[in-house]
Amino acid sequence: MKKTVFAILAVFVTWSALDFVIHVLILGSTYAAMPQLWRPMAQMKMGLMYFTVLVVAASFVYIYARFIAEKGVRTAVLYGVIFGIATGVGMGYGTYSVMPIPYSMAFVWFIGSVVEFTIGGLITGMIIKK
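RESULT FIELD:
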């Protein structure tokens, strides 16, 4: 149980840092060019955003810890890649299909999800071993 909680916290912190890189450093100017699509910074629900990242990290780690029989770094990274592709397609291209965002944003959301979940898998696999 301690390893699972540690993995959840490690994945949460890593994903939060990567979200900053993706959404502030890489996409910040793109978001700023389309203010009509987003809440003003003063109205953003950042506490809720961090809560959602924590819930996804907990779910991601729990699924691996509970349901993946063959534990190891290789398996966890593959799990992360697959989870990242599934999430990234929905986030990037699903959103692109219904919102007037530039393709580059959809692509970065997709790739960012794959990278984040792959790294999350790596971290989880390094902490939760057989």
